[in-house]
Amino acid sequence: MVAALAVPLVLPFYVDAFWLRIGLFAMAAAVGALGLTILFGAAGQLSLGHAFFVAVGTYGYGFLAGDDHGQVKGLGLPPLLAAVLAILFAGLCGLLFSPVASRLRGIYLGIASLGLVFLGHHLLLNLPAVTGGYDGRSVEPFALGGFTFSDVSDRLVLGIPFGAVESLWYLFLAVTVVATLVARNVLRGRPGRAFRLMRDSEVGAAAMGVRVQRAKAGAFVLSSMYAGTAGVLTALAFQRAVPDYFDLQLSIDFLAMIILGGLGSTSGALVGATFVIALPIVLSRYADVLPLVVAPGQEGIQASFAATFVYGVLVVIVMLTQPGGLRAMVHSLRDRRSTAH
After folding, report:
1. How many CA atoms lie within 13 A of 45 on its CB side?
2. What is the DSSP letter of 320?
3. Which class for 174: exposed (0-12), middle (13-18), buried (19 or more C-beta within 10 A)?
């Protein structure tokens, strides 16, 4: 446990900025995956609209914290206040959709939530004053207590230049740890037991005193706020928001994360998010030495397509051989080892 806590704290002093940036993207996705773990893994509510709520968090922060730049407008609020309001706005959008979520389940809810992605993409392209349209909009750097998380040439810590990536690493790490602890406490407490009862049998849950519609709405709102938090982190990691990123593929990626890691598992969501986010970036970086994979712009199998194919095949294998995901696989290996000893 000490090593698990100490290693992330010292990584910015020893690891190249490329790997730290992958870590930022992975932690942002992990927070969103934790929200989907609560909604789908625990409560059994299939959602294909997760990308919509991530977009709400991203553009909400960009609009609230940004200033006016030509036709693109902003309110210029303090970054911390803008981040909190963006997360709350994502939760409000989830609350507005909760009457639909409370009355549907399974593939029907998935199809209904899918409409949010197309609606959101349409709004992102046709509200240029808020979103910047097709070109997107820049994102103001985060600031807390007079400290700005940006590249400063003279900022040194123990002789190591500390720019935006290194500074954001600790911010993202703190948010991810808090989000993980909250999700774990929710799943282990009374709400988590109510969600699992509802997932297994709505009639049985109602017989045990669970108010099913309220529980469904609560799970959807909490998941939306997690997605909004992931959106704020995504905005800070990319330092720009573009509409094409928040499409159906992003929602499918989130589903792949929690299925690979293990439905209902917080640690599985973290591992699955890291794998799904890091794989295409690593393949693209080492495309010149990998067989069959080519760099962007060349003829052949693109790194992004190869990564999608790899974790798509892994999802099928996991569902056929180990439905509990990587978490169940680790527990199975641990039990075998203890039995052998």
Report:
1. 34
2. H
3. exposed
Quote the CA–CA distance of 148 and 81 in Å, as a whole number.
14
- Show the tokens assigned to 70: 């030509």
What was the pLDDT predicted at 154?
59
Would you say 60 and 90 are in contact if contact means Cβ atoms under 8 Å apart?
A: yes
Q: Which residue is listed with tokens 């500390």?
A: 162
Residue 296 has a pLDDT of: 67
pLDDT given at position 297: 67
State CA 151 to chain mean position distance: 25
Q: What is the mean pLDDT of each run of 10 residues along the chain (341 residues)?
A: 79 86 94 94 90 95 88 90 95 92 84 91 91 90 82 63 82 94 93 90 87 89 95 93 91 90 86 89 79 71 79 81 72 71 64
Q: Tell me the H-state helices in 189-247.
A: 190-200, 202-207, 212-238
Domain edges within the chain: 2-247
Per DSSP bridges, beta strands 143-144 and 293-294 are unpaired
Structure tokens of 47? Answer: 């959602």
The rounded distance, in Å, linking the Cα atoms of 5 and 20 is 16
